[in-house]
């Protein structure tokens, strides 16, 4: 898998951990090993510009996803075709504010936002109540699974 992470902010972002999360999520969704994903961290100004341009909404937002090849989750015996998943753009400053409100770390919020963005890239949405239930349930399961994997790795080390 090709996962490119770019941090254009002054925020300290644990890129290695984000890379591990993204690889985990792609594996769990049975995305082809030759798929490509880009994750970018930007300041509030550029995020607000994207938010206005693509959503016609003022102010910065936390995460935006830009799907490319409209890949969908695969199955154990049938991964997706190779292709470009697309781009995820995250604003650490907004993530930090949300993390404070939620009572967890900025990094935990960023992991949540990256997972959320990745689910949008593979066709999940949350506009309707049933879509919301499915997407947020899968998001929770992926984050819990990733946390368990991290805990197991630390215990082995």
Entry summary:
The protein has helices at 15-28, 44-55, 92-102, 106-121, 129-156, and strands spanning 2-7, 36-41, 63-67, 84-90. Helix 4 (106-121) crosses helix 5 (129-156). By secondary structure, the protein is an alpha/beta fold.
* Total helical elements: 5
Order of helices and strands: EHEHEEHHH
- Global outline: globular
Amino- and carboxy-terminal Cα gap: 25 Å
**Largest sheet features:** 4 strands, mixed
Q: Strand content of the residues, in percent?
A: 15-25%
In what order do the strands lie side by side in the largest sheet? 1-2-4-3
Helix content: 40-55%
Indicate the low-confidence ranges by residue numbers: none
Cα-atom radius of gyration: 15 Å
Average pLDDT score: 96
> What's the number of extended β-strand segments?
4
* Structure classification: alpha/beta
Description:
This protein has 157 residues and is α/β, with parallel strands linked by helices. Helix content is 52%, strand content 15%. The protein contains five helices and four strands; from the N terminus they run E-H-E-H-E-E-H-H-H. It has helices spanning 15-28, 44-55, 92-102, 106-121, 129-156; strands at 2-7, 36-41, 63-67, 84-90. It has a four-stranded mixed beta sheet, sandwiched between helices. The longest helix is centred in the C-terminal third of the chain and has 28 residues, at 129-156. The mean pLDDT is 96.
Short descriptors:
157 residues; alpha/beta
Describe the secondary-structure layout:
Blueprint: E1 2-7, H1 15-28, E2 36-41, H2 44-55, E3 63-67, E4 84-90, H3 92-102, H4 106-121, H5 129-156
Parallel strand pairs: 1-2, 2-4
Antiparallel strand pairs: 3-4
Helix pairs in contact: 1-4, 3-4, 4-5
